[in-house]
Design brief:
Blueprint: H1 2-23, H2 67-100, E1 103-107, E2 110-114, E3 121-136, H3 139-142, E4 146-160, E5 164-171, E6 178-189, E7 192-199, H4 205-208, E8 230-239, E9 244-251, E10 269-276, E11 289-302, E12 319-320, E13 326-328, E14 344-360, E15 363-378, E16 381-398, E17 400-403, E18 406-409, E19 422-433, E20 449-464, E21 467-484, E22 493-496, E23 500-510
Length: about 500
């Protein structure tokens, strides 16, 4: 439109100029060369100054412009100025509309539509993971060999009037649809934000990583000691350009590994996180990305006894391996209709989680330790149990860079340019130990292991940030967790649960 407007103005001014030239009287032509006059006779009188030469034509005289000609030229100039001003106004209006018009963006980060100033933004994202899970050397576990949809999560998120963010993420991969993330985030300043709804709690450094960005296909054992999601309100923000990150909130206090939508008691948990990233300071960014911090959570818990219409709600969850097999659970026999033989959460539960990561170019390492002091009750017996777990993960990207948000290829997959993406290698060791006082009062030693140790290795081909395929092998050893239950004549015989050998493959789309 602007191009055509410029053409119209150009040709209009050109035409007006031509008209102006046509109305201006032509300049007088130079007189023709005079024929040399014959020489004057000797007795001729001298010529009078100013008098025309004998035989010469008189010089033409240009007529003076009339008042109408001057007025016409003024009108032409005024018309040209008006046309140019209209052209400027059209350009200004087009620039204003360009600033206000929504822009659609499609890339490896998803589909995004919003105003250029980002005051209103709508993003459509998704995560799809299709897995193959296979076990070895255990016929019982081999019965669980399967292909499956591990995660299927469409996400809708955005920004409203530059002040409010929102996120909504359901999970369709399980047998029943559940809401994973559903929160509103008000951010008047970068250092002070308020988030309310269902979200990841502050405990668990690896837990806070996106499922799409894990260097291995499953999380470490220590994630059994924190909830998947919790519902509450938190203050959080980044101070000093992100050098200091903090979280302080009040939550329902979901049991470990769960993502419940309601609380089973009136008490609430207090949780917080302080994380320092010193290399975000100006002049230190070249040293990589270092983060060191600690998370904590504490609150009173109380389970619910069974009723004639509802089963007991213990407030305690089972612990699982990377292959999603339960290796520990508190006593909760289905035949217990009174709750006298069931272990319930009781009074205070406290977690501490020191954590760190460091990424530099293609290298990365992440480690954390989780300490849980859990009050429990069975019948009239109560105690505090201490459960501990830790893990460390090292990763390396060939042809890419490592960071907390995953591996990024230096050159995304492009056959025409002979770019193949990046190869990501990772190894992980993890461990989880249960308090000795847990057995046999609160958990069955021939059904639940006292500890688990795992080592895992994997490789992933990251074609682009939006697509990757991966393979992981993990081996998990147990102490206890098998044997023969005690009888009236013989004590229990405790043996180790069979080692779990897991091979898992995955194809992932994430945008």
């Amino acid at each position: 439109m602007i191009h055509y407007t410029r053409q119209i103005v150009f040709w209009s001014v050109l035409a007006l100029s031509a008209v102006a030239r046509a109305q201006t009287p032509p300049a007088a032509a130079p007189p023709p060369a005079a024929t040399p006059a014959p020489a004057a006779p000797p007795d001729a009188l001298p010529a009078t100054p100013g008098a025309p030469e004998p035989g010469a034509l008189p010089a033409p005289t240009a007529p003076a412009p009339t008042a109408s000609d001057t007025a016409r030229l003024d009108d032409i100039e005024q018309t040209a100025r008006i046309a140019l001003r209209k052209h400027e106004l059209l350009e200004e209006e087009a620039a204003k509309r360009a600033k206000e018009a929504p822009k659609l963006t499609v890339d490896d980060k998803g589909f995004s539509m919003g105003l250029p100033d980002k005051s209103y933004v709508l993003k459509i994202r998704g995560l799809l993971q299709t897995d193959g899970r296979f076990f070895f050397d255990d016929q019982t576990l081999q019965a669980n060999n399967t292909f499956l949809i591990r995660r299927f999560r469409p996400t809708l998120e955005g920004t409203l009037f530059s002040l409010v963010d929102f996120k909504m993420t359901p999970e369709f991969a399980s047998s029943s649809v559940q809401i994973l993330d559903a929160y509103i985030d008000v951010h008047p300043w970068e250092w002070l934000r308020v988030r309310a709804g269902k979200m990841k709690g502050p405990v668990g450094l690896e837990r806070l990583q996106s499922d799409a960005d894990l260097p291995l296909l499953e999380r470490a054992l220590d994630q059994n000691l924190s909830s998947q999601r919790d519902i509450g309100v938190q203050l959080w923000g980044d101070v000093a350009g992100g050098i200091v990150h903090y979280v302080a909130g009040v939550f329902n206090g979901n049991p470990d590994t769960t993502s419940n939508d309601t609380d089973i008691n009136y008490a609430k948990d207090l949780a917080g996180r302080l994380f320092i990233r010193p290399f975000r300071a100006e002049g230190l960014r070249g040293f990589g990305n270092l983060g060191v911090g600690i998370s904590a959570q504490t609150g009173n818990r109380k389970g619910r006894l069974p009723t004639s219409s509802a089963a007991a709600q213990t407030g305690l969850a089972a612990y699982k391996t990377a292959g999603q097999n339960t290796f520990f659970q508190y006593l909760a026999p289905t035949s217990d209709t009174t709750g006298a033989l069931t272990t319930f959460t009781h009074e205070r539960a406290t977690r501490l989680d020191p954590q760190l990561y460091y990424y530099y170019g293609p290298f990365g390492v992440l480690a954390e330790y989780v300490w849980l002091k859990q009050g429990v009750q069975k019948g009239n017996t109560t105690t505090d149990l201490t459960q501990q777990s830790a893990h460390a993960t090292a990763s390396f990207s060939l042809g890419g860079t490592e960071d907390y948000d995953g591996s990024t290829p230096e050159h995304p997959f492009d056959l025409a340019a002979r770019h193949l993406g990046a190869l990501q290698f990772a190894v992980q060791v993890s461990w989880l130990g249960l308090d000795d006082a847990t057995f046999p009062t609160y958990a069955n030693p021939v059904a639940s292991a006292r500890s688990a140790k795992a080592i895992a290795g994997g490789v992933g081909w990251v074609l682009r940030r939006s697509f990757r395929v991966g393979l992981m092998y993990e081996q998990t050893w147990f102490e206890g967790g098998a044997g023969t239950a005690a009888t009236s004549t013989m004590p229990a015989v405790i043996t180790n649960r069979p080692t779990e050998y897991l091979l898992q493959g995955r194809a992932q789309v994430n945008f």
